[in-house]
Amino acid sequence: MDLHFGDSKPTDEERAAVDAVLGPPESAWEVPPGMIADRSDADLRWARGGRAARERRDELLPGLHALNDRVGWVSEGGLDYLCRRLMVPPAEGYGVATFYSMFSVRPRPATVVRVCTDLACGGAALCGEVEARLGPASGVAVEQSPCLGLCERAPAALVVRAGAPAAPLSPTPPLPENPLAQGPGVTADRLDGSSSNAGPAETLSPGRDLSAPPAFEERGLGRSPSAEEPHMSQPGRGGVGDKTYVTAALAPAAPDTLAQAALAPENAPAEPPAALAVPQAGQDGLLLLGRIGKVDPTSLDDYRAHGGYTALRTAFAVGPAAVIREVTDSGLVGRGGAAFPTGRKWQATASQPDHPHYLVCNADESEPGTFKDRVIMEGDPYSLIESMTIAGYATGAHLGYLYLRGEYPRALQRLEHAVAQARARGFLGDDVLGQGYAFDIEIRRGAGAYICGEETALFNSIEGYRGEPRSKPPFPVEKGLFGKPTAENNVETLVNVLPILTMGAQAYAAIGTEKSTGPKLFCASGSVERPGIYELPFGATLGELLTLAGMPDNLRAVLLGGAAGGFVRPDELDIPLTFEGTREAGATLGSGVVLALDDTVPLPRVLLRIAEFFRDESCGQCVPCRVGTVRQEEALHRIVERTGAEAAGDIALLREVGRTMRDASICGLGQTAWNAVESAIDRLGAYK
């Protein structure tokens, strides 16, 4: 790739995929020479593009998704065409495309099977078995994948077959005209105000049980086709042959079933309802998970019948300043691991004189062992839409971006449907609930990059750059997305705002402890009888949680906080599950991962997998992390079968490398990459 455009031409499929996102070219200057026979007089007099095109750079990631979804990989011709349309140097576009694990810039089969090989699944052997069953002539690529967020049903796999989309490609259903939300990423040519009162879950398969739609529902990135919307696999618009884009999530995945799904993903078994991931489903007193299993996640009316949009009406009644005051008084802190006070973040964003303000929901939960946000988005999507609307109202934002993991196809479908329904019914748009407040939501798909869970890396990803963290200050509340004041929160943090407004800050703060207030979601997986999401008040002990989940008799260790967390011993189960309690115990709560390991699990292999994960996920921007994660993995490889004096030298090296990463890395990935290994050596006596 070069800084200059080359001679490569896109195929008809690639051009159609890009044009479905960006619209047709407005002039001959937007296409490679020779693709249009003659330039018009207007083209010869006026070369369009430049600044106007570059301001659409945030369309680069959706465009790459369109190419990858259509043909299975990103070719030089397709990338050149996309970059030419956006006035992005091809070398920069190539740098973005190669940053994400879900994209390929080399030819590969249209069908890709991603098998989770992370801590809860350990599917390396499953990869080999599936490859053996499929054979080399199957036209299917089998790849090892980091955590797919299906840990409660491990082992997990995701099948993706490229092809023509089942609906026109766009990051979300079209946004209505809203002058208050104009800015980068919201261009006039995409604001047509269209919406349908019938969402994808109701229209894709009449008569289906809507509480459990298949994970492999065939859609592009929006609505299902209708009579007015011809199917995109018609002659001349086909993807790979006459096939359409299909995804199928299988968990637990067995070799035979997975091989069959790889060959015909449209016939894969239906994914079970999200409620099956909540062992407490149906119990009274749940504040965050109470609707999951009770409410049809595709029905806005059902959501409202169970208390939905009560909090938003309360917010409009008291005003944005009072909303921020309630959130501050509740003691709510970020649930992603950093535990920053949410009210302070919202106040700092709202008080910035620079406009527009943005709201970003970080739904890119990629920490191995974490799946709580996925369950909320699949089982109660309208709660997130309502929460984002409240957050936007409080912070003065008129546009919210929901950055969703690329590995969550059912969550994408549910959220697209929820956004379309909320927009059609007046809960989103230029006059929300008739209150004169304009707010809308745009969904952006991630593409497989753990580092994009870091807020500034996420901003870069949305803007069309490599997902690398930015230096701070300035902080996002001052200069965040598109250089404007931005409030960023994860899914669990946002949905906590609903009970705060409905029950009051004082009642909410009475739950939990003085410093860690409210309920917390914990992801229990591994060697437990009842893996899933558990809602407990802060202050419950680790032992109480494991008792609910079914603790094994031969418990060896518990990993708290995921790969970036640390291990605790079976005799430390009285640790209170609070931010301050785990900190005092020398552990970390992180995002709420609780991975139990029994004595049959080879601990050195687990540590090696953690090291491999951080090596793969390092963005490479800073030397301590880029080099340190590699050196850490190399050392763990050398001592995987060693103990005592034979391992002493490499353990000393690991400590030195770990301290350097912790002290000098630019972001939390490098700073925490050594945590689990250190705790295993010091706390569990690994390699002794």
Automatic annotation (TrEMBL):
Q: Name one Pfam family in it.
A: NADH_4Fe-4S
Outline the segment boundaries, as ranges, of region: Disordered: 169-241
PROSITE patterns, per the entry: COMPLEX1_51K_2 (PS00645)
Compositional bias per record (Basic and acidic residues), positions renumbered to this chain: 216-231
Entries under InterPro entries matching the protein = NADH-UbQ_OxRdtase_51kDa_CS, Nuo51_FMN-bd, Nuo51_FMN-bd_sf, NuoE_N, Nuop51_4Fe4S-bd, Nuop51_4Fe4S-bd_sf, Thioredoxin-like_sf
Show where the NADH-ubiquinone oxidoreductase 51kDa subunit iron-sulphur binding domain sits: 604-649
What are the protein's UniProt keywords? 4Fe-4S, Iron, Iron-sulfur, Metal-binding
Family membership:
Belongs to the complex I 51 kDa subunit family.
What protein name applies here? NADH-ubiquinone oxidoreductase-F iron-sulfur binding region domain-containing protein
According to its UniProt entry, this protein's organism is: Streptomyces longisporoflavus
Which lineage do the record's taxonomy fields give for this organism? Bacteria, Bacillati, Actinomycetota, Actinomycetes, Kitasatosporales
